[in-house]
Amino acid sequence: MSEETASSASPAKKKESLGWMEWMIGWSSVFGEILFQRITASHLQNPLPLPPVNDLTCIVTGSTSGIGRETARQLAEAGAHVVMAVRNTKAAQELIQQWQNEWSGRGLPLNIEAMELDLLSLASVARFADAWNARSGPLHVLINNAGIFAMGEAQKFSEDGYEQHMQVNHLAPSLLSVLLLPSLIRGSPSRIINVNSVMHSVGFVDPDDMNVVSGSRKYSSLVGYSSSKLAQIMFSSILFKKLPLETGVSVICLSPGVVLTNVARDLSRILQFLYALIPYFIFSPQEGCRSTLFSATDPQIPEYWETLKNDDWPVCPFISQDCRPANPSEESHNTETAQRVWEKTLELVGLPLDAVEKLIEGENVKCRYGAQEE
User: Fold this and answer.
1) Composition of the chain by helix, strand, coil, percent to 5
2) CA–CA separation, 134 vs 38, rounded Å?
């Protein structure tokens, strides 16, 4: 065999990071959103007016603070049945009582409840999904809002052994989305809404090293966070392809913008001080939840979803902080990596590769983290 033939037969070199041009474009997207989000979103009302939602049942994760809290409150006040999926159900119950008192005399009592969900435990995710599916009722909107950005902290792992950003921001919401498919199909037309971030633009995912422990990349909280957000888009894009139009289940990722939330509590004191100096550029939680509410309720979203599917678009719908369709990063279009992320994610969360297909057909699927049969 000639050297030329041997060279052409050799496998392509594995991509180990973003190229410098991708990196620069990514950071320009980040700083562009910080500097210009108020201008690009200036056409939006605050709070965002909602269409009729009285017939909707919505699950909102991480809804005791920040964007999730505003999302849950506004959906409930608009008439939706809202389920606050949270770690601290006591805090959620206190919020519910507060909202009911404030709403008293303005209409019917808010239809809102709290259920326990800890995204740092995949067993908790499986228990939540089992409990909800056991109701045999419809689910119209799943809002995967909860997330962490432990800025500046050392690398930490969940009780399941996974890097905390990857688990909370990607693995756990992915497991929840798949396990709740039976209820979402019952609620068709329904939507899975993933609160993502412009920071995915500087993320890179190695499906063979999702915990960032191999040493090929130096871990930082920024690497952990941005990688988890990119992984979420990639997984959502494969789910977008696998869900037939007939199911009526849409999958959407979105950017809320740069928002003043509890993420700031994880910053160093110096960064918290600087964060507080630029309130003009930073959205309030009420402003930051607009793209979530838009994605969850706008009647044109299913049509947009259908158009992208018919055009064989490689990534799932992505809504920007100004409530307009946007194109996520170039790396998110890497369909080969996205497929590997899909397969690795299902492996890590304990689901078979054909889980989605089986659930669509009405079959039962066993999760490694679910309740064990006697």
Assistant:
1) 50, 10, 40
2) 43
DSSP string, 99-150: HHHHHTTSSSPP-EEEEE--TT-HHHHHHHHHHHHTT-----EEEE------
Residue 5: per-residue pLDDT: 45
For residue 190, give every residue at least 6 positions away whose Cβ sits within 8 Å of its Cβ, in sequence order, or none: 138, 139, 140, 141, 142, 184, 248, 249, 250
- For the question of residue 162 being annotated catalytic, the response is no
**The two structure tokens encoding residue 370:** 């679910």
| pLDDT given at position 280 | 75
Is residue 164 a contact partner of residue 150, using CB atoms and an 8 Å limit?
Answer: yes
| H/E run at residue 21 | helix 20-40
Burial (CB < 10 A; 0-12, 13-18, 19+), residue 242, is middle
215-255 pLDDT, tens digit each: 889 999 999 999 999 999 999 999 999 999 999 999 999 99
pTM reported for the whole predicted model: 0.93
9-52, pLDDT tens digit by residue? Answer: 445 677 888 999 999 999 999 999 988 999 999 999 999 999 99
Average pLDDT of the segment spanning 283-307: 96
Active-site choice (225, 280, 304, 369): 225
H-helix or E-strand containing 234?
helix 221-242
Phi, psi of 325, deg, nearest 5: -60, 140
> How far, CA to CA in Å, does 141 sit from each of 26, 37, 109, 173, 292?
30, 26, 21, 14, 11
